[in-house]
Amino acid sequence: MTQPDAPDWFCEAVGTPADAHWVQVAGCSIHYRRWGESGPPLLLVHGGGAHNHWWDFIAPWLATDHRVAAMDLSGMGESGRREQYSLDDFAAEAIGVCEAAGFGPDVTLVGHSLGGAVCLRAAASQPERVGGLVMADSPIRPPGYQFPGTARNPLRQPRRDYPDFDSALARFRLIPEQPCDNAYILDYIGRHSIIETPDGFWTWKFDDRGLAHIKVGEQAEELRQLRCRIGILYGEKSALFPPEVRQYVHQLVDRRGPVSAIPEAYHHLFLDQPLAFVAALRILLADWHAL
After folding, report:
1. Which stretches of the chain score pLDDT less than 50?
2. Within a domain: residue 181?
3. What letter would DSSP give residue 46?
4. Residues whose CB falls within 8 Å of the CB of residue 243, separated by 6 or more in sequence, listed in order
5. What residues does the AB hydrolase-1 domain cover (predicted)?
6. Is 7 within the bounds of a domain?
């Protein structure tokens, strides 16, 4: 259920039916959902600690002219758990979903935050399987750069249990924390982020064992060597895309694709400015598919 002040476009989007599927990747059950019947394929990959429902109000807009899938990485959402997690495993899961969904080598991978690193690794490790990459506020740090004032990462803390659903929902926070004026979106995502434990408590859907310690590796070199289509979208107010990071990413992309800001958006750019994000992504994809 959405909040009463949710706009019509949002209610219509999250009410759009999607087909649920699972695929086994390296011994783990990976969950994904699909929208759209025709057009070029598109895979949406969420950030750390998130899940496929983050895309519920985005995917239907893209499914008007694409076949769209949104997945849950292992350890998150409805997917299975592993003893250990790695970026290589996540990348293999993304490719596994593409194969199970019948997506060919023209698939575009769209990843937010950690999902951008996952998509980059997938495109770098299996270039014959990927036609395009869009990284959404997924920064690549210049050598030696540290983000100033980095807050304590809640993914590194043991998950808390709450006595009831409403108590858990009241504690839902974005990671990293930021302002977001669209309370109806936060409410919707929060309601899909909570699960009941076997002993009757309520907690978050993500596995709290090791997800915050994923090593992204040599992203700069991966991006330099990439030969598929590239697009970078970031929040104009994102703390993860200060001027130093923007300049560095521009250098890495080197005119092979757009590096574009979403105005009035922070790190969680498609929560802050969902329609602007859809418009930017639609324009980018239309240009690519017209080539």
Report:
1. 151
2. no
3. -
4. none
5. 42-280
6. no
Please give the pLDDT value at position 210.
74
Q: Is there a domain that residue 177 lies in?
A: no
Q: Look at residue 157 in the predicted model and tell me its pLDDT.
A: 66
Q: Which residue has the tokens 């999250």?
A: 14
The pLDDT tens digits for 19-37 are 999 999 999 999 999 999 9
Query: For helices 114-125 and 87-100, what crossing angle results, to 10°?
Result: 70
CATH number of the domain within which 274 lies: 3.40.50.1820
If DSSP codes are grouped into helix, strand and coil, which group holds residue 81? coil
Q: Which residue type, as a one-letter code, is found at position 191?
A: R
Number of compact structural domains in the chain: 1
Residues in the chain: 291
pLDDT digits (tens, 9 = 90+) for 187-219: 999 999 999 999 999 999 999 887 777 889 899
Per the structure, the complete domain to which residue 69 belongs is given by: 18-154+215-290
Per-residue pLDDT, 99: 98
Give the DSSP letter string of 211-262: GGG-----HHHHHHH--SEEEEEEETT-TTS-HHHHHHHHHHHTTSS-EEEE
Residue 168 domain-assigned (yes or no)? no
Tokens of 96: 């596994």
Per the listing, tokens 């249990």 go with 161
CB 139 within 8 A of CB 245: yes
